[in-house]
Amino acid sequence: MKKDIRSLRYAELKKEMERLGEKPFRARQIYEWLHVRLAESFDEMTDLSLKLRAKLSEEYALLPVILEERQISRLDGTNKFLFRLYDGNMVESVLMRYHHGNSVCISSQAGCRMGCAFCASTIGGLKRSLAPSEMLGQVYQIQKLTKERVSNVVIMGTGEPLDNYENFVQFIRMLTDEHGLHISQRNVTVSTCGIVPNMLRLADEGFQITLALSLHGSTQEKREKLMPVAKKYDLAEVLAACDAYFEKTGRRVTFEYSLVHGVNDRDEDARELAAILKPRNCHLNLIPVNPVRERHFVRPSRENALNFKNKLEKSGINVTIRREMGSDIDGACGQLRRRYAEKETTTDGV
């Protein structure tokens, strides 16, 4: 089986060129073609000899990340992309434009096995994890399609990044490598539902990325009702892992909290949440839930969301309500991919 060349770090590519009997500077040329010029075939690498290009084609694969559908919000210019991978699996990515630069939210898996109750991504389970090249490919394709530089990357799309730990870590190293796009680690955020052993591993990687924990419940019992993973990792254990991350990296942890009307947006939820977060140097991001057709959750009214935020602020919590982007397109994580899968099923059944 051919090696996935775009998943090789610069030092690994140098070793590969040595193995092939090529000069070391070839690694720099090829790496630049792959990660700066964003080439999608060896034929594009015109400063390499035809013989070397043929050798590369024999030895290595360039896994494609192909645009299947693109939606553009008329409200705020948010772009949602559906990409097809080499084996037919689909992943979603989102481009959001802010005054501080372009932010891209990418997927780390095709599907997800975490089973969070309000999320469309988990419907149908996990198909497979993505290679580093397929995570990078989402960023690269968006840069090529928009002709705009990406300055911030969020790994918060379909999948649980820490359930794909080795590939995710390789992706971070390559995304922020000086030989590639060289995106600042401080401009990278990873979201996890709370896989404690890998949160602790991540704290020891020496990264300066932001860790975002999907909290969604103010007690262990409430969290279990929304997130099956909470039955494996107790809330106290997860919070201790967040504290360890902050202590080792100095990076303030973000807590994500999907507000669901009548489920976790009551006064007692605000009190319990404040008690958890007050001792911690952290930021709370409230996310009014996006309704998903297969689920029966309802988003709170704007007034209720603001009241919830105000209660937390009065308790001294640093809190924001996430700005809603792309509400006129398939905004919720996993919705575009899910709709496409349903269309394919219907077509196959005709």
DSSP, total strands:
14
Over all CA atoms, what is the radius of gyration? 21 Å
Supply the helix-strand structural class.
alpha/beta
Order of helices and strands: EHHHEEEEEEEHEHEHEHHEHEHEH
Main beta sheet strand tally, sense and closure: 10 strands, mixed
Helical proportion, percent range: 25-40%
Mean pLDDT: 92
Shape: globular
Low-confidence stretches: none
**Assembly status:** single chain
The fraction of residues in strands falls at 15-25%
The N- to C-terminal Cα distance equals 36 Å
Count of DSSP helices?
Answer: 11
For the biggest β-sheet, the strand order reads 3-4-5-6-9-10-11-12-13-14
Report what the structure shows:
- This protein is α/β, with parallel strands linked by helices and 350 residues long.
- The chain is 36% helix and 21% strand.
- The protein is built from eleven helices and 14 strands.
- The strands form three sheets. The chain has a ten-stranded mixed β-sheet. The protein has a two-stranded parallel ribbon with strand order 1-2. A two-stranded antiparallel sheet has the order 7-8.
Task: Please specify the SSE layout and strand pairing.
Elements: E1 3-4, H1 10-19, H2 25-35, H3 50-59, E2 60-61, E3 66-72, E4 79-84, E5 90-98, E6 101-106, E7 109-111, E8 126-129, H4 132-146, E9 150-155, H5 165-175, E10 188-192, H6 196-203, E11 210-214, H7 220-226, H8 235-249, E12 253-259, H9 267-277, E13 282-288, H10 302-314, E14 319-321, H11 335-349
Parallel strand pairs: 1-2, 6-9, 9-10, 10-11, 11-12, 12-13, 13-14
Antiparallel strand pairs: 3-4, 4-5, 5-6, 7-8
